[in-house]
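Appendix B, record 7
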Amino acid sequence: MSEPSPRRYDLDWIRIGAFFLLILYHVGMFYVPWDWHVKSPQPLAWLEPVMLATNPWRLSLLFLVSGAATRFMADKLAPSALAGQRTARLLPPLVFGMLIVVPPQSYYEIVEQLGFDQGYLAFYGRYLTASGNWCDADGCLITPTWNHLWFVAYLLVYTLILAGLIAWARPALRRLEQALERLPAWALLLIPIALLGLARAVLLPRFGVTHALVDDWYNHALSFSMFLFGYLTAKSEIIRGRLIGLRWPALILALGAYLAFSHYAWTWRDAATDPAASLVLVMRFVYAVDQWCAIAAILGFGARHLNRGHPALSYLTLAVFPYYIVHQTVIVVAGHHLAQAGLPQGVEAALLIGLTVAACGATYEIVRRVPLLRPLFGLKPEAPAVTPAERVLPIRNG
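Structure tokens (predicted):
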């Protein structure tokens, strides 16, 4: 097995980029014709292939990078300490988010989709007590809910599972890590594609994607496998070198698969009949090619070009999680009200992006300065300042 690598700045940059792509993606969800919490009165069909450019891989990449970050923590902590520290970092934002951050999303959703007009206070009491009975032909809104914070809930559960595996099956994890390093380069592309395509062909039609944790088996197969892969390969110079070597073939395959799948999705988007079952099956594997090859290309190019620090990196690494926590609520609230202002759509979209970034930035700047708020947004308690009188060299014997 290869020697442990130093800090992976490339993974930090990739994590930051993936989160900011997610923010832009959710702005796009306001305008694309797909179902979402609130919608622009003028949906843009041409956004569908643009959204599909990141849809197959953006969250899988985040789980992979999160698994890699967990590896660096796990190598310094006992499994129980890892579980405790990650629970302390992830559970408060999840609970706070479900109680404070997310409810406005559900409120504006029922205002737009169900015509709810009783005000936020009346809504909030029913939100907390799961007594809203907000239903339409597509189902009922179950509250309290975590909406976009499902990622935090899943990450917490996966980390606890991993801590158990480290405690009880560490030798098996080491053997699996060594087996991954023995794979030839071609297998590092083809085997994940085959597994992801098989999961999409077998599990997705049966379970769908629910984000409800207990019945989300396709999503678990996808997300936990990415999380575990990130953990197993984070310190492997062999895997890192192979991904660098695969970056151009992976990029070409990802682009080709994206063009094929987006053409398929566009062609059948308004079709009165479903495509042939054989075509659907083929496209599930084409989707898997796009999914894994895009990730492999990003990891390869990142390892080749981004493994360096920068003054902005420390700031963004801390800021990105608070940004993530609040961004969707800002988009929902601002989008709902901007849509009523009658602005040109280009101006409206620019304002929506600008307001989202500004609100996220202001939130982080406030939160990082208030000790009581820091844990609610996933930030560690601030280290106490060291006074000049405390900066004394230790006394050495002799």
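Remarks on this record: The mean pLDDT is 94. Residues 114 and 136 are 8 Å apart (CA to CA).
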